[in-house]
Amino acid sequence: MTWKLRTGALSAALLAGACTVGPNYRPPEMTVPPAFGEPQAGVPGASVDPARWWSAFGDPRLDGLVERALKGNPDIAVAASRVRQARLQEIAARANGKPTVDATADASHVEFSKNAGFSSLARLFSGDSGGSGAPGGIALPGSGITTYALGFDASWEIDLFGGDRRGVEAAVARTDAAVWTQRDAAVTLAAEVAQAYFALRLDQDQIAIVEEELIRQHRALEIAGNVAKVGLVPQVDVTRQRGSLTSLEARLEPLRADARVRIHAIGILVGEPPETLDAALSAPGGPLAEIPAVPAGLPSDLLRRRPDVRAAERQLAASTADIGVAVADLYPKFSLTGAAQLLSTALGNLFSGDSLQLTASGAARFPLLDWGRRKATVKIRQEQREEAYAQYRATVLRALRDVEDPLARLDAERRRNAALRRAVADAEATARSVEAQYRTGFVAQDSLLNAETQVLSAREQVAGSDAQLRQDTAALFKAIGGGWSDADATAG
Fold first, then answer.
1. Pick from 339, 340, 336: which is nearest to 361 by CA?
2. φ, ψ of residue 261 in degrees (nearest 5)
3. 42: confidence class by pLDDT, cuts 50, 70, 90
4. What distances in angstroms separate CA 440 from CA 228, 229, 245, 437, 450, one per listed residue?
5. The sheet that has 100-111: what strands, in order across it?
6. SS3 content of the chain, % helix, strand, coil (to 5)
């Protein structure tokens, strides 16, 4: 039987008894409620696409900002790089357990010592008593020999107990986890951009309200001055009106500064220097569409839709496979090596059949004494799996809370918003009545200023409530895992 047949027979025998040690992965069973406890708004007939939920607000500027952020934000680039790294790790893991072949080429020269102990024997075999040549292929003391070799070396550590196969399982699971983590980064970023933008719109709405009130109070100051000149009202009314106007003007600057800060924050989110968006976002945008209703769905949908839940589940799968890798180290290792070479002392006959040299060997390595290191490694991997399972459960529970909280806030804020709008209508009606009474002298100017302050406060509260509804809606879209699609994952 030739060495090739013997090697093949040994390989077949080993593979026939191959097995995969360690636990097989089973997806965790996580019990979730059949429905969310908080009330949900009715879902409109035209459903919102969770993958591009921000477009439901009807603001082209918001759409552009989110899209720019998803392309240019550094965190997204980091997540994409990690996906590519994971895929390369997967390629490396698949290469483990497969034979390796190396091409070899070698030329060597040895110059023998004249005083070597075998000099007499070399002369005897060479038939020469003092020459320096090498007849018969035996180098004489004081002469040299050159050899040339060209061939292939092959080695194979047989994955008899499945350690390498478990390593592939772990690498594949970690690649999936990296993809889901990338999607989770997109979900988080889209919500952050939307919430920062809505905060900017609130500042701009409040600036518009104050500026509108300033125009009205400038007119009121002019009227008060004219009336005071003819003696119908005391001069102190003009002073009070001017003080109210000055206080209102002082409120503008903090709002303008806060708006600039919001613009800077949005610039960073889209991956640009802070001042890049000053010109584009300084002017107020157009009116926003009605706040969309979010199709929150069922709690069980979160296990499929939420990228962080999917990433945690994949990390659990990887940790389970890691146990098998560690268990395989408890068992013997078997390897095969072989070499086919053309070996000659002359280049002229290197490629002849007589220059062929074949070698083959098999080896086994049995673990005997490592002072408990391998078994400790197995237990470490088991504990890491328990940790991954606990993290998975925590992620699912956090996901449930992430949905319940904005549902509760939205339900309460909708009722508050309706009450605030009624308060605005009542405050405006009261202000009109008081102003008419003031013009006829039936009430003092303090009453008019108080009524005007109530109108301004009520309008600002409505603007704040509208912004809060939009921010809570964005938080709810994020909570259900909106903001990614299958096309978002970076190709390997």
1. 336
2. -60, -40
3. low
4. 14, 16, 22, 5, 18
5. 100-111, 144-158, 333-344, 356-365
6. 65, 10, 25
